[in-house]
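Quick one, probably user error.
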């Protein structure tokens, strides 16, 4: 997850699955502060816990969120 392309792809899948279009929308979905999403975007790293939470909430495979597989 350390390349820009993989960050953008994962972030895009998170937005798609959650049905939100903004950092603040994702923060609301994850029940976290918007600053946390902004910080993750600056670091270009998605915390794995976000992937797990979104996958469980939407009953999808984490492999799809992480890698676009499945």
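Nope, works fine. Designed sequence:
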């Amino acid at each position: 997850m350390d390349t820009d392309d993989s960050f953008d792809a994962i972030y895009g899948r998170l937005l798609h699955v959650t049905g939100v279009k903004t950092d603040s929308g994702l923060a609301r979905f994850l029940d976290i502060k918007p600053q946390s999403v902004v910080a993750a975007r600056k670091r270009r790293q998605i915390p794995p816990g976000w992937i797990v939470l979104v996958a469980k909430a939407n009953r999808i495979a984490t492999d799809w969120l992480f890698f676009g597989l499945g």
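Residues 4-18 form the longest helix (15 residues).
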